[in-house]
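no rush on this but wanted to send it before i forget. theres a chain ive been looking at and ive put its sequence and its fold in token form underneath. i want to understand how the tokens follow from the sequence so walk me through it. thanks a lot i owe you, the record is right below:
>
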Amino acid sequence: MFLTVLILGTVLGGTYALLALGLTLQYGIARIMNLAYGEVTLVAAFFLVWAFQGLNLSPVLSILLLTPAGYGAGWLLYAVMMRPLVKRSGASGRLEVDSILATFGLLFLLQGLLLITFGPNFTSISYLDQGVDILGVSVSANRLIAFVICVVAGAGLLLVLTRTRWGLSLRAVALSPGSAPLVGIDVNRVARQGFALGTALAATAGGALAMYQTFSATEGVIITMKALVIVIMGGKGNVGGALVAGLALGLIETFVATAIDPGLTLAATFAIFLLVLLWRPQGLFGRN
């Protein structure tokens, strides 16, 4: 059972880690807590299903299209909806509260559009669902492909953040938005880029999720809450912490589903979340 939990949990955790990275970027760089994050993920997931069933488009190709489309949608969303909130808040510190209220409304708008378009029923695709033997554990090929996509996307993001000048600007705004203009960084432009990059990761993770998991138009809240749990467990704005916490959550959920009861996975997730909040409110990898 140990190997089963380890392999299946790592595969699931890869998707969770990518989901959390997007939310971490949006909150850490743009200072926007996006409660509609799960709905954005679902829009990408439904697009993949529609493209696969209606256009016979390969899911991998769909994800390659979803990533830049997600970046563009995030850029537009920030320019139209978030930028006025940022401008109005100034240095008053109201941005977090205003963004929570605004994205709370966006959540219901997107959820309603998804329900009208796709209905309330669960949906999924049948794509490379045959098992592949890994150290005696059978893992479906679509899960492995989704895991590889998440690893490539996560590794690419880390390379961008640590090895490029753009990544340096993103990290500077995340660490000290007040001091970043002193070295010539346009904080508003970088914040918009950070929000768009987070949306691109949400779209990529949504596509990866749709490759192997059944979902419905009303599951966005659960996706957002899981991403939020990972972000807080890893430490707000901590990219490395989000990666580790995402993998840990995948392992914990798989262990509970395999050894105890699949119906208790969500309860286990939030029990651990409460423990972290009580024991280390700054997150497992956050600083005081």
Q: What stands out?
A: Strands lie at 131-134, 137-140.
